[in-house]
Amino acid sequence: MAGVAFRNISKVFGKDVKAVDNLNLEIKDKEFMVLVGPSGCGKTTALRMIAGLEEATDGDIMIGDVRVNDVPPKDRDIAMVFQNYALYPHMNVYDNIAFGLRLRELKGFFWQLTHSAEAKKVKQDIDDRVKEAARMLDIEKYLGRRPKELSGGQRQRVALARAIVRKPKVFLMDEPLSNLDAKLRVQTRYELISLHRKLGITTIYVTHDQVEAMTMGERMAIMRDGVLQQCDRPELVYAHPANKFVAGFIGSPPMNFLEATIIGGKIDAGAFVLPIVGNEAARAYEGKKVVLGIRPEEIYDKSVPSNMTASSDNTIKATVDVMEPLGHEYVAYLKVGDIKLVASIDKETKLKPLTEAEFCINLDRLHIFDADTEEAVG
Ligand code: ATP
Question: Which CATH architecture does the domain made up of 4-247 adopt?
Answer without folding.
Answer: 3-Layer(aba) Sandwich (3.40)
